[in-house]
Amino acid sequence: MLSESTCPPKNKSTTGKMQAVIYSNGSQECERAKILLEKLNFQILEYKLNQHFSARGFVEEFGEEAEYPQVNVGFRHIGGLKDTLNYFKVNGLLV
To answer: Theoretical Cys-Cys bridge with 20: which of 28, 42, 48, 55, CB 3.0 to 4.6 Å?
Structure first.
């Protein structure tokens, strides 16, 4: 589980950007998700394995079948990179 003491500080920016959260293990897929969100002008919080959460905490939060990265947009859990791409396509942010 994520704890307040290990989480990065909450960004209280007033930019009006939609916030996205990435749970990352530093893989190429995680970097791709981060680049996608940056290109779509999201404010990004990145939680990193062994820095902000443990592998056990990841499994407890997302399940044993979950892949890296896991992405939340606003308060909604989207899923992995493929799920995120599909979510943005369905919602008209990607063509």
So the answer is: 42
Gap between the Cα atoms of 68 and 71, Å rounded = 9
- pLDDT tens column, 48-67: 999 999 999 999 999 999 99
Where helices occur in the chain by DSSP H, the ranges are: 28-39, 55-62, 81-90
By residue count, the chain amounts to 95
> Are the C-beta atoms of 21 and 75 separated by less than 8 Å?
no
CATH number at residue 66: 3.40.30.10
State how many domains the chain has: 1
Q: Which residue has the tokens 């443990």?
A: 54
Range of the domain at 58: 19-90
- Report if residue 36 sits inside a domain: yes
Summarised one tens digit per residue, pLDDT across range 3-58 is 444 444 444 445 789 999 999 999 999 999 999 999 999 999 999 999 999 999 99
